[in-house]
């Protein structure tokens, strides 16, 4: 029976007690372990020191990294067990992902606006006149008088 590889992403937090050199070695060892399990690495991000939102195992900072890979589903449990037993891994999470054709990971973090501006919106802003505070107070008083 043929094994079908599935696309996964492993996100992990390494302990901040490790220095930069040790983090590099740990990361390389993790990549090597994945390859030994039969993974095909698609993308990897070298761990970077980040501040945690709350303490994890009495640490306020940790090195965050992630790896995207193709992997046989049958070997997933063994990988999770290895990560769980590693004391330098504070947290890890493996989840299945769907890769798009010609996927660009950096596009997830683009700084494009979420909402598109309407065509006349910029023109309206330039046409609006500035209103002084006195005019605004007068207008408010008129509105309040009308309501009474």
> What name goes with the CATH superfamily?
Ribosomal protein S6/Translation elongation factor EF1B
CATH level-3 fold name: Alpha-Beta Plaits
What number of domains? Answer: 1
Spatial order of the strands forming the largest sheet: 2-3-1-4
Please provide the ordered H/E string of secondary-structure elements: EHEEHEHH
Number of helical runs? 4
Helix fraction bin: 25-40%
Distance between the termini: 83 Å
Mean pLDDT across all residues, rounded? 81
β-sheet strand percentage: 25-35%
Cα Rg:
26 Å
What does this structure look like?
Residues 104-116 have low confidence and may be disordered. This protein has one domain (5-109): Ribosomal protein S6/Translation elongation factor EF1B (Alpha-Beta Plaits, 2-Layer Sandwich). Helix content is 33%, strand content 34%. The chain has a four-stranded antiparallel sheet with strand order 2-3-1-4. It is of the alpha+beta class and 148 residues long.
């Amino acid at each position: 029976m043929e094994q079908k590889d599935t696309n996964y992403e492993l996100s992990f937090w390494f302990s901040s007690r490790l220095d930069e050199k040790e983090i590099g070695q740990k990361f390389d060892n993790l990549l090597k372990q994945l390859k030994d399990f039969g993974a095909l690495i698609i993308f990897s991000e070298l761990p970077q020191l980040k501040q945690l939102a709350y303490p994890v195992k009495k640490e306020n900072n940790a090195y965050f990294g992630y790896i995207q890979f193709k992997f046989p589903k049958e070997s997933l449990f063994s990988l999770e067990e290895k990560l769980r037993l590693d004391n330098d891994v504070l947290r890890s999470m493996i989840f299945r992902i769907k890769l798009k054709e010609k996927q660009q990971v950096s596009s997830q973090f683009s700084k494009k606006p979420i909402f598109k501006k309407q065509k006349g919106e910029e023109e309206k802003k330039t046409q609006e006149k500035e209103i002084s505070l006195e005019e605004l107070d007068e207008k408010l008083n008129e509105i309040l008088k009308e309501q009474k």
